[in-house]
Inverse folding.
């Protein structure tokens, strides 16, 4: 079972802004561990979207932004586009699970 | 450009073992830890384990759910990481990925996923 909790789905019309939450516990995000976000398009590998809570790798548009507060984190997508339709996963570190890198349950973003 | 290619998957009978390879290029392989993941059909990614660099003693850590069945190794001369998984069950079916990992941070991220290699456990 995924350690980090995300809403199963969010949706928005082109041009709108959506946010995806990622809720952890005191042994992962709540302990101060950074959160990272990945985008997975159908039939492809996950792609790093945000690292270190809010940093974008080169080539990722600034429409994507991340934040973290307490034991939760959020990914915001502004100016929704059709090719943003994908699954999004958060990821962090959990110190109760023997060096475990943990993922969220995943959120499907649907463009209306 | 950072590049990884996973290989070695296929159709395997329950109870058998497999060995997957991860060939890397575009970065100094010996300076990075290498993590493995898998993704079952319709599910999210699951971390399998990590092997650290020689500088960190090639320490290995494994997901609790995989302990006792999984073994990671690496060959810094050929820039290749390996995953061996034994006593396969249908639940091991999925796509297996590898990625480099920055071992200088407390919560590492993964910026180099290959296309993965499909493992199907079936009789």
């Amino acid at each position: 079972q995924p350690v980090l909790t995300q809403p199963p789905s969010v949706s928005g019309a082109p041009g709108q802004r959506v946010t995806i939450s990622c809720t952890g516990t005191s042994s992962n995000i709540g302990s101060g561990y950074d959160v990272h976000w990945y985008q997975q398009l159908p039939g492809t590998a996950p792609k790093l979207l945000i690292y270190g809570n809010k940093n974008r790798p080169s080539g990722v548009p600034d429409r994507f932004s991340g934040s973290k507060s307490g034991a939760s984190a959020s990914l915001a997508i502004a100016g929704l586009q059709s090719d943003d339709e994908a699954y999004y996963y958060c990821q962090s570190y959990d110190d109760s699970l023997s060096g475990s890198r943990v993922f969220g349950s995943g959120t499907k973003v649907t463009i209306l | 450009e950072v590049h990884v290619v996973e290989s070695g998957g296929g159709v395997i009978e329950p109870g058998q073992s497999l060995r997957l390879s991860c060939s890397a290029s575009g970065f100094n392989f010996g300076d990075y830890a290498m993590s493995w993941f898998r993704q079952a059909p319709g599910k999210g990614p699951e971390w399998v384990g990590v092997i650290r660099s020689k500088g960190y003693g090639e320490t290995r850590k494994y997901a609790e759910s995989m302990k006792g069945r999984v073994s990671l190794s690496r060959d810094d001369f050929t820039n290749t990481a390996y995953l061996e998984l034994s006593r396969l069950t249908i639940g091991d079916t999925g796509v297996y990925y590898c990625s480099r990992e920055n071992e200088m941070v407390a919560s590492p991220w993964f910026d180099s996923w290959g296309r993965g290699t499909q493992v199907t456990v079936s009789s």
Q: What stands out?
A: The two ends of chain B are 40 Å apart (CA to CA). The longest strand of chain B covers residues 18-25. The beta strands of chain B are 3-7, 10-12, 18-25, 33-39, 45-51, 60-62, 70-75, 80-85, 94-101, 117-121.
